[in-house]
Design goal:
single chain, 253 residues, 60s Ribosomal Protein L30, Chain: A, 2 domains, 3-stranded antiparallel beta sheet, disordered C terminus
Length: 253
């Protein structure tokens, strides 16, 4: 599942199954995770096989998750389930991905719908997001050389391709004027575009900002809670500059 703007989106489902031949040969085995029960050679062989299958399953999930996180550029990962399985998957993740992964111990055997699953894990995700946003604001508002603060300067840097990541207060909106020819947008009231001299029309910030972010391949952090209050006091919007922009920015001082 992908958690996006407060909503959980189902992307793919995979199911773990024991090899039918082994189940038929050995019969069912039920035991708590990590507890081995002596039941004879056949059952010992079967339990070793179960352990090997689970280890293989954990490696495969970790590999799949690693590729998925890289493709989606995810900032955080949650592994939810019985603790032995969840931790087993976590241990197989690359070190860098483990650092931004949270393991949540939850027995999800009773969950029968996406809505129920979302209700179960939403408090964990929300708490994690609020904590992460506070850290982001500490970084954004505490650095005067590698960032830009405020709507006007952020829009300029964004449209010049200098921004790497952008943070905006949830619900922030306002009027802009956008050129009908080159699409340059800002809050100035000039009837002619400052970039090309073309005609301009009134547009909404919340409509234009996602379009600009996609055009310049910029990730957007929508900030809530206490972190949003701090960002609102600083102008409601800010951004981290790309590496090349950081160097140029530093040379001006």
């Amino acid at each position: 599942f992908l958690w996006w703007l407060g909503e959980m989106l189902e992307l793919e489902e995979k199911e773990f199954r024991m090899e039918p031949s082994k189940v038929k040969e050995m019969g069912p085995v039920s035991r708590p995770a990590g507890v081995r029960v002596s039941r004879g050679t056949d059952h010992d062989v079967y339990e070793h096989h179960v352990d090997a299958q689970y280890a293989h399953y954990q490696r495969e999930i970790a590999k799949h998750v690693d590729l998925w996180c890289a493709a989606e550029h995810l900032d955080s990962l949650f592994v939810v389930g019985l603790i032995e399985m969840a931790k087993g998957i976590w241990r197989e993740l690359p070190h860098g991905l483990r650092e931004k992964t949270t393991v949540i111990e939850e027995d999800l055997g009773w969950v029968v719908s996406r809505v129920e699953l979302e209700k179960r894990i939403e408090p964990f995700v929300e708490r994690h997001e609020r904590e992460r946003e506070v850290v982001l604001m500490d970084s954004l508002l505490g650095d005067s050389r590698a960032v830009v603060i405020g709507i006007d300067e952020t829009l300029v840097q964004l449209q010049q391709g200098r921004i790497r990541n952008l943070a905006v207060v949830k619900g922030l909106d306002g009027s802009l004027k956008q050129c009908v020819q080159c699409s340059w947008a800002d809050r100035t009231q000039d009837p002619a575009c400052p970039a090309c001299g073309g005609e301009r029309q009134v547009v909404r910030l919340r409509e234009v900002l996602p379009q600009l972010a996609r055009r310049y391949s910029v990730s957007v952090e929508v900030i809530s809670g206490e972190a949003a209050r701090r960002l609102q006091e600083a102008g409601g919007m800010g951004a981290w500059l790309r590496e090349t922009a950081k160097k140029e920015y530093a040379q001006t001082f």
